[in-house]
């Protein structure tokens, strides 16, 4: 079987069955709007849209990718349709790249939903779009592979959601999305620099508000390193747990 055709067929199947479904498209719109509305109400109507935009974008990617991938892989594993994919004459790495590419695209699209809404409210000139897009893509890849790691670590869909929240909710408060890391208690600040989302959110702040605190090159290396490590650990666990 042509590897490119196999990759494309698996990707298109997932796009049709999961990512292009109306409930998932609406999730990608409702989630960032809900967060923006929450900050609007909290600020009494005087919200710094540009200031919260990097955090809302990062959060939209994190929740969109981890939710979708952790649930879809676990669901297919539970229904035994994933075992049929394992019989395909392609490498496990290519198979998992095909399974995760849809979630990466989903996360990237999710990231630009709040940007679209913000463009109707504020002037978005001056944004370094090259760094912004690089940050969005790397956050989407890292978050997707985190979702893969979670999916491979559990056996039930509800366990995937619970395990996802174990990572996601600490990241909301520790990664500098809405609360500066320097404002956190001293004993929590080292934890912030262990989490990959810290580096992605810093790239977005640098590109949108020019106030990043971490070197772009360090952020790039950390995010690429996390992506490779999560993918390698996940495929190792699939070979160990799911292939006999």
The level of helicity is over 70%
Low-confidence stretches: none
According to DSSP, the number of beta strands is 0
Number of H- or I-type helical stretches = 10
Helix-strand pattern: HHHHHHHHHH
Average pLDDT reading: 84
Structural class: mainly alpha
Beta fraction:
under 5%
Largest sheet: none
How far apart the termini lie comes to: 23 Å
Overall outline: globular
* CA-based gyration radius: 18 Å
Transmembrane segments: 21-40, 52-75, 96-121, 127-152, 173-194, 214-233
Domain ABC transmembrane type-2: 15-241
GO cellular component, one term: ATP-binding cassette (ABC) transporter complex
Subcellular location: Cell membrane; Membrane
Describe the structure in your own words.
77% of the residues lie in helices and 0% in strands. The chain is mainly α. α2 runs antiparallel to α3 (49-78) and α5 packs across α6. The mean pLDDT is 84.
Summarize the helices and strands and which ones pair or pack:
Layout: H1 3-19, H2 22-42, H3 49-78, H4 81-86, H5 92-119, H6 129-153, H7 157-174, H8 189-192, H9 196-209, H10 216-241
Brief overview, please?
The chain has helices at residues 3-19, 22-42, 49-78, 81-86, 92-119, 129-153, 157-174, 189-192, 196-209, 216-241.
List keywords for this structure.
244 residues, mainly alpha, 10 helices, globular, transport, cell membrane, Nod_factor_ABC_transporter, transmembrane
